Amino acid sequence: MHPRALLSTLLLTTLAATLLSRDQKADPKLAGSYRGEEKNGWIPVRLQGTPEQVGYQHGFLLAKEIEDALAVTRLSLTHDRVRNWAFFRVAAEKMLWPRIEAEYRQELQGMADGVAARGVKADVWDLVVLNANIELNYYTAWLDKRKTSPAPDRCSAFVATGSYTKTGQVVMGHNNWSGYLEGARWNVIFDIRPAKGHRMLMDGFPGLIHSADDFGMNSAGMVITETTITQFHGFDPQGIPEFVRARKAMQYAASIDDFDRIMREGNNGGYANAWLVADLNRNEIARLELGLKHVTLERKKEGYFTGANFPVNPKLAAEETDFPVSDRGVSANARRARWEELMAKHKGRIDVESGKGFLADHYDSYAKKAEAPSERTLCGHVDLSPRGLKPWQEEFGPAGTVQSKIADAAMVRRMELEASMGHACGLGFDAAAHLKKNPRYAWQKPLLRDLPSRPWTLFRAGR
Fold first, then answer.
1. Does residue 131 contact residue 209 with C-beta atoms inside 8 Å?
2. Fold of 156-460
3. C-alpha angle 40/45/49, rounded to 5°?
4. Alpha-carbon separation of residue 171 from 197, 225, 336, 356 (angstroms)
């Protein structure tokens, strides 16, 4: 960048920060909230108060990012021209809103008021679509009676405790697999102090009341993450939206039993996941595999659970997915095998540093190749996969790991996590170069961004 252009950018950034700070002091609804300076690609944001206050602060402090996130979501949901934005707004109002409890209705309306105060044209129905954008794909698949996966492979994760970890206590890590289009925006660290429930520290996406890729902790000693059950089909339009249950569980769960109960109640099948959960007070870990018909809770105080988009329950796999359980070459099965190798190899030594290595791992367990980044490696690079592999890239565009998070028990007790934006392995993504090589994704050109690899950064609630 030219020195004059750089100076101009710095001056504008400083001016914007000064004006925002002035607005925060003048508006009592913003009391206690905070938007920090960007750190290695992450935007730290603190929200606190009643649901209306938390929502208003979120909308006000991240208004421009929410406007951008809505543009990305609108493009993603409507670029195939099968259904327009108006269709999804109606679904938000008629199907989802009646099943959202009052607390989160108030927060969503507060957010709409907050973005409006900053001059962004978006109402509460736009924000409900934004929050439910992943599970709305399950809804449209249900409407069309399609037995196809509405969500691709998303995420690699692990949780371990007891004899598997260096300290004998919990370590949890997760990387988010998404299309690079939306994934480059999954860069907010939320520190939320609600008037009711527990304080939360979680990663997130602008405008979402839940984490959505789901890595977070609360002040009751709970740590939560998940990976999607790939090639899942099934949806109940009478159920409670997944984004509501996920947020409620992060906010109110004080035990694995609490988490299990909240996620099961009103389960709509949307965004079906295998949830990995840890309760620091009991040094206990669990995996809640949440299908629509089949729900399985496993728990232990010794060992580990991993996630890589594979279904575990044979009945769930057979009756609720089209997943090829015997094909060792598909992404989820290859990554599952790699997790088993790493857990065995590092037994007794798993800690934050080794976990970072897991999340950046490029070993292809199927091809038996080291440093072979693709959709079969824990650090996902769908855009680098050999020809013929990419089962969902054609529809979703360039994709893979977009960010990573990790924490151990000592960090959680201090309400801390470490996060890395981009691929933790160090490889970056060049949007222009990819579009030039793959012109079929030209529909993403107006909004697709570069995704550079950033260093691991520590975040703590209250900073």
1. yes
2. Penicillin V Acylase; Chain A (3.60.60)
3. 170
4. 24, 12, 18, 11
Q: Positive or negative, the Cα torsion across 56, 240, 246, 252? A: positive
Sign of the C-alpha dihedral computed for residues 164, 168, 172 and 173 taken in this order: negative
- Residue 157, C-beta contacts closer than 8 angstroms, at least 6 positions apart: 172, 173, 174, 175, 225, 226, 227, 276, 306, 307, 308
List C-alpha distances in Å: 265 to 128, 247, 261, 262: 20, 13, 6, 5
Q: What does the longest C-alpha to C-alpha distance in the chain come to?
A: 63
Q: CA 303, 307, 311, 316 torsion: positive or negative?
A: positive
Which amino acid appears at position 9 of this protein? Answer: T
Q: What is the pLDDT of residues 5-52, one digit of tens each?
A: 444 444 444 444 444 555 556 799 999 999 999 999 999 999 999 999
pTM, to two decimals = 0.93
Rounded to the nearest angstrom, the gap between the alpha carbon of residue 420 and the centroid of all alpha carbons in its chain is 13
Domain boundaries, the chain: 31-143, 156-460
User: pLDDT digits over 424-450, tens only?
Assistant: 999 999 999 999 999 999 999 999 999
- For 31-143, CATH number? 1.10.439.10
